[in-house]
Specification:
Blueprint (H helix, E strand, L loop, with lengths): L2 H19 L2 H8 L11 H12 E4 L6 E3 L16 H10 L3 H4 L10 H10 L9 H10 L9 H15 L11 H4 L16 H12 L4 H11 L8 H17 L4 H7 L3 H21 L7 H14 L1 H16 L42
Antiparallel strand pairs: 1-2
Helix pairs in contact: 2-3, 8-10, 10-12, 12-14, 12-15, 14-15, 14-16
């Protein structure tokens, strides 16, 4: 863009903002500065004045407002990174009663299955931990709400940590496909996992120990032969974690730690690590995805403590520079030319009675 066209665009944008300031509502906001005070200032006018003063710049063509530092509005804007604990606190304080009604905390068993589970199954979750478990399952019922500023901040944080970008991105667009969602709108890929899937990704990228692992798995997902949709695979790992929690596979560990959310988070990360290891070492491709996930789910439910221990050892070795998930695969090639034509098969899409590809792991 040459200097002349840049100034013309700037003048046009400034002119548009000037026209906004001439609006009757905004004229009322400016009246006090001109020495005139209205007899009554409505709450709407005061709110509009606060919002107008908070706006620092408007980025053309993106629809993203950047708020001035220190403004009240800036605390809820997607421009700021959000921690997992902050996002979790949001869900602990908002009304989730309509979503809580939908949950089934445990799997209902009858007949011989119920008897076998009672005699040989894992212990039940202690009563004092059930409210925390129900919160996890309730969040999994929540969808992505574009009108909720916290939801936008979570998405922006995931994008920035995975890409290294310091700039905001649109909440819809092709850039989400680059991170492994199936379309331009991440909300369409959360089936069966809800907003918990995004909280798990947030946990993965905002924890300093697991962020290097997340970036390595992302690199693996972009391998020119073994590519897979990173975020969509993560959603499937969250589905496995939800099922393991409902089937009480994690109850023993939750009772031991006297926590639920940290155990579920670690289980999610450990299962994702196991998937990446199998994917790389056994040369899996997108065509194997459904069967790999099905076998992974069976292993994760059977030996959750083993997976968690593997994660602990791996993270300890990574912190000392002694482990790398990708090993000699330091560089990933461009995506294959037909990668968009390949179909990702998740846990929910696999035919339960299909025997094709069984025993891949």
């Amino acid at each position: 863009m040459n200097e002349k066209s840049f100034h013309n665009e700037k003048e046009l944008r400034d002119g548009q903002i000037s026209e906004l300031k001439n609006h009757s509502l905004l004229q009322a906001l400016r009246a006090e500065a001109n020495g005139w005070e209205p007899a009554v200032v409505s709450a709407e006018v005061l709110r509009a004045q606060e919002e107008w003063e908070a706006v620092d710049t408007v980025q053309p063509d993106t629809g993203i407002f950047h708020f001035a530092p220190g403004s009240q509005a800036s605390s809820d804007q997607p421009g700021q990174l959000v921690s997992f604990s902050e996002a979790l606190l949001h869900f602990q304080t908002v009304d989730l009663s309509s979503f809580r009604k939908r949950i089934q905390p445990t799997i209902r068993r009858t007949g011989f299955a119920a008897l076998r589970h009672c005699l040989f199954g894992p212990p039940k979750l202690q009563p004092g931990l059930r409210e925390e478990r129900d919160l996890v399952l309730t969040i999994a019922q929540c969808g992505l709400d574009s009108q909720d500023p916290m939801h936008g901040r979570v998405l922006q944080t995931i994008y920035k940590k995975l890409t290294g970008s310091k700039f905001d991105c649109a909440l819809h667009g092709d850039h989400w496909e680059d991170l492994g969602f199936q379309g331009a709108n991440p909300a369409t890929d959360l089936r069966g996992a809800g907003f918990l899937a995004l909280l798990h990704l947030l946990y993965l990228v905002m924890d300093s120990q697991t962020l290097p692992m997340a970036l390595e798995i992302l690199r693996l997902s972009r391998h020119h032969i073994q590519q897979f949709p990173f975020c969509l695979m993560s959603v499937n790992i969250t589905r496995i974690a939800i099922q393991a929690l409902r089937e009480e596979c994690l109850s023993r560990e939750c009772n031991r730690q006297q926590k639920v959310i940290p155990v579920v988070n670690s289980f999610y990360a450990a299962t994702f690590l196991r998937l990446a290891h199998v994917w790389r070492t056994q040369k899996k491709t997108i065509l194997d995805s459904g069967f790999v996930l099905k076998d992974l789910e069976a292993l994760a439910k059977k030996s959750p403590r083993r997976l968690l221990r593997t994660l602990e050892i791996y993270l300890a070795r990574v912190s000392k520079g002694q482990a790398s998930l990708l090993g000699v695969q330091k560089h990933c090639g461009p995506q294959g030319p037909n990668s968009k034509d390949l179909t990702f098969t998740g846990v929910c899409d696999l035919q339960p009675h299909s025997s094709e590809g069984a025993g891949l792991i």
